[in-house]
Amino acid sequence: MHRARERAGDDRLHDAGDCVMAEREAEAAVAETQRKLAVVFADFEQRLEATPLIRKLTRGRFELADYHAFLINLRQQVKDGALWMSRAASNIGEDHLELRSTLMRHAVTEHRDFRLLEADFTASGGALDDIQSAPKNVGSEALSAWMFHEASKPDPFGLLGAMFIIEGLGSIKARPWGLKVQERLALPDEAVRFLLYHGDNDAEHMKEFEEMLGMVLPDPFIAERIVVTAKVTARLYALQIEEIAA
């Protein structure tokens, strides 16, 4: 009886040790993946800064027509965002229900965000029909097709890389861009709500992103797919902005 208790205690210690080791491996994998994603994002920032639209913004030559073109083209991508996120959640298996739930919450939170863009457009003098009826540009078409393609796969964990790019853009660039637009064009707060809102809220999403990585790592194949997906998404997102011409 005494030996049985000793064996049970040894098993518990062994299990606890395995659990600690697994947690450390996951933490290391998350940190390494985030490091690689940061490199991708730095390249993404450079590409954005080189686009005609953002160069006009940063060099003080941004006009109202530029802002309207930006809102029109961004609306298409934002409207699709909640849709591909919902599709991705529906394709996540039972082994990762917490991740599925997290993506579904994101989709619910963001599925009306394109209405903010419409409100900003009309508050800055645009006609609602103009933004609602505008087609996607070449970059937006490519980005949307890519996102839905990835979201339709079983367990589309690679899309975490896409979320890093998009949410990272919101947390780092949205507010500075919004303030520059507001200053340059002398617009009221209600005309730049989308950019200011995402600048304030996407930082929280980035914290949640780290938790989502921990739900699927460590797994070298998944980690590699996350980084590759981030690279493709960054290229196509930059193309979307590059194609915007007022």
Overview of this structure, please?
With 246 residues, the chain is mostly helical. It has ten helices and no strands. The termini are far apart.
Write a brief structural summary.
By secondary structure, this protein is mainly α. The chain has ten helices and no strands.
Cα separation of the termini: 82 Å
What is the overall silhouette?
Answer: globular
Runs with pLDDT <50, length 5+?
none
Q: How large is the share of residues in beta strands?
A: under 5%
Spell the H/E element sequence. HHHHHHHHHH
Mean pLDDT: 90
Task: Label the structural class.
Answer: mainly alpha
**What is the tally of beta strands?**
0
Q: Percentage of helical residues? A: over 70%
Q: Notable features of this structure?
A:
mainly alpha, 0% strand
SSE map:
Layout (H helix, E strand, L loop, with lengths): L1 H48 L2 H7 L5 H27 L6 H14 L2 H11 L4 H6 L4 H14 L7 H27 L7 H24 L3 H23 L4
